[in-house]
Design a protein that fits this description.
The structure is a homodimer of 304-residue chains. With 304 residues, chain A is α/β, with parallel strands linked by helices. Helix content of chain A is 55%, strand content 11%. A five-stranded parallel beta sheet of chain A has the order 5-4-6-7-8, sandwiched between helices. Chain A has a three-stranded antiparallel beta sheet with strand order 1-3-2.
DNA sequence: CCCCTTTTTTGTCCTGGACAAAACAAGACT
DNA sequence: AGTCTTGTTTTGTCCAGGACAAAAAAGGGG
């Protein structure tokens, strides 16, 4: 009868994997190499991590996504980590996430959050809502979390409600069904559903015919889907944490597998910098450029 | 220079884990014990699985979710597996998934699928749409996949579009904001977002104040959220594949952590049978009973 | 039939070594 | 300056095979 894992204060290695996204193998090798995290063991010799360890690991994970190397972070004390976070944030000023908006997210106030979205929608339109509110807010939320201003459930709440609002607005949007017909998804390693949805909104607002398969689609299935659905464009989204070389490999394979008449568009924070000169691939630099890409496609295909 | 994993025909063990949901450790121990799957090795001795192996594994995974033991399935040949599938399906008749609907899903026809949803919405209302179309359709889709009538991307497409439609309808629904205030989520091990959304629809249609945190919420955070949001009810959803004992452990911990004034509702295919007599927990037997639960709550709290 | 205990099956965790893949650094070329 | 090599360091993933926890099935009273 060993210690049970259902409690609130000590987590098994698989629970930590789930919470932090760090593989069990990685957690073990970090312990071996850097001496952190160093969990206690239960009677059977199995690791049990404290909540402090888990939150430090989550912090480390985020900083790694922003480009920091694990070697530095794992050697650092809590105080040194704090310094790194402050240095990280010195440059940016989260102007959006304040006042009413911050309160709404922290108190899980569905109505208040929707009110802000609704008002922005009326003021700036659907595309403006995405480019001027949701996109920058995503960044701010991540940073506020890093500072400890908001917690995990607050972030879940924000993601869930934003998704609902965007999907809702999308549903009531008149569908013109003009070309191009775009197939939208991410590679299997990429979770990032909100980014995908933002692109879907931009495309639909532009009047394009948009078919989203959701995230995590195997390469072979992307190809099949594009053919059976008769897509003009396959659009992929990459978050900033996506490993560059894997992205390139996937994109090249897909480019080869697709007929040349089908365009391949690539966007998201992870695509911006590093995927420049791939032949036969259109890089969309920011969420605001989706509209331009659609227009360009239409001009190129105007002669029918 | 070893074989690269980006290709379309051979998958590394981590890719198979991603595709099938079976842990690497499980795949290795199956190979050791049952001799299947037996992948070839690259120059470095690392496993490379064929597409056939992967689809057989996916099949096995689904049958296990329906209660079959791995020992039987892994010893079975392809033909024997086929027999099991047929036996499995003999009982049920997928009446819904046919004709227009099946074609729409297979050809990724967004408009056609929405048309069916829209019509059902007009005929049967929001709750009827969920209970009479979406809920049974989910089951049919799973079975059609098992038979090989539809593929992985078709299923993704269906899930994505259904989610969009439900969320869209929800957004345009007038929010009365009557009590009870329900916090909606799943335990960390449970992915099943569509089931959660169906419950949200039922609750909202009933006029309840519903706050969804999306799936995969840690126990400690559920507690915190329920308190800060001032929830009257915490509702959890379980899919049929969820391990019973883990569910019970989680529910008990949560029940203890929550104040007694906050009710705990548990629903979904996984909750129906096995979670009967937990004290202080309300089991919702089917998606159709959500409405009744809300009414019961209101009567019990009518005296203010 | 339901509840409890024992046995069997099955999945997860362990160690420590090896090495693939990614990131970085330094030099060479345009 | 940028960008393409090529070498070096860091970092993550894989492997083998043993151990054992957890889940399921089977057995045995009440």
């Amino acid at each position: 009868m060993s210690a049970h894992a259902s409690g609130l204060s000590l987590l098994t290695i698989s629970a930590v994997e789930r919470e932090t996204g760090l593989l069990k193998d990685t957690l073990r090798v970090w312990e071996r190499r850097y001496g952190f995290p160093k969990p206690i063991r239960d009677d059977a010799g199995e690791r049990l991590y404290s909540l402090e360890d888990v939150s430090k690991l989550r912090l480390i994970r985020r900083l790694m996504d922003q480009g920091w190397r694990p070697g530095k972070l794992l050697a650092a004390s809590a105080a040194e980590l704090q310094l790194i976070i402050e240095a990280e944030q010195a440059s940016r000023v989260p102007a959006l996430l304040a006042g009413e908006l911050l309160d709404a997210i922290r108190s899980h106030d569905v109505e208040a959050l929707r009110r802000v979205f609704q008002q922005t929608l009326l003021e700036k339109g659907l595309q403006g809502l995405v480019t001027d509110l949701v996109a920058p807010l995503n960044v701010d939320i991540g940073e506020a979390w890093l500072r400890g201003d908001i917690g995990v459930p607050d972030e879940h709440f924000y993601t869930e409600q934003t998704q609902s609002f965007l999907r809702g607005t999308l549903a009531s949007y008149a569908r013109t069904g003009k070309p191009p017909r775009v197939l939208l998804t991410t590679l299997p390693e990429e979770e990032h559903a909100l980014g995908l949805l933002m692109v879907e909104v931009m495309l639909t607002a532009e009047g394009a015919q948009c078919c989203s398969l959701g995230p995590r689609m195997p390469l072979a299935d992307i190809r099949t889907s594009a053919l059976t659905a008769g897509a003009d464009v396959v659009a992929l989204s990459f978050s900033s944490a996506f490993p560059v070389r894997q992205a390139i490999a996937g994109i090249r394979t897909l480019r080869e597998a697709l007929p040349p008449t089908v365009e391949l568009w690539v966007g998201g924070a992870g695509a911006r910098d590093k995927l420049r000169n791939e032949t036969g691939v259109q890089v969309i630099r920011g969420i605001g450029d989706v509209g331009a890409a659609v227009c360009a496609w239409r001009e190129a295909h105007a002669g029918h």
